[in-house]
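# nightly structure sweep
# worker-07 picked up a monomer target from the shared queue
# config: single-sequence mode, recycle default, output format = structure tokens
# input follows
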Amino acid sequence: MVNEKENYSTLNKLVMDLGGSLFGVADIRALKNSFVDLPPQQIEGLDYGISVGVRLSKRVIEGIEDRPTQLYFHHYRQLNNLLDQIAVKLTGHIQKEGWDVLPIAASQIIDWENQKAHLSHKRIAVQAGLGFLGRNNLLVNPKFGSRVRLVTLLTNMPLLADSPLNRDCGNCRECIPVCPVGAIKERQEDFDHLGCFEKLRGFRKECNIGQYICGVCINACSGEL
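# output follows
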């Protein structure tokens, strides 16, 4: 007998045992048309998106002032690696149970100019009830703020699907004045993607880091909403 609740509970526990901080499941059928470079036959029948989050180090993030630090760059890479390892372990478990699963790398941009990955981890996390899309264009979790990294797995394993949170940034505008290029606006939908990316490009060269990262607005979004 299919037991969506039991499957959900088992995966949730496995994620936490492996070092995860957040776990949720989304019904992704309405999101599939936004996926990039994933052939229809590859994702056919995979209607659930498992969203896993790992919390960033408070002290590492609070060391960021007006630009990314070398410490943050190293931490960022290690958390992406941890998330991918968690996804590998979940993949093994799900396949052992007889179901299909497609892990999507935590940080694999396939179109940097348009900041596109195979899918949006944050949008699936929103659908999975892990937070909402903030003014800074990042996932905002009620407990951890934007101080999380994410990974996604697509599966046909029967699971309970979570519901999106009915909330937003409210009166909080801490991220707006600290953005180095003013990319963050009053309305989330007005976020300046191009301006943000150009600054990330600049930081990559100025700070001698091999990644398009910033972290300034992440520092400002500490959670406890």
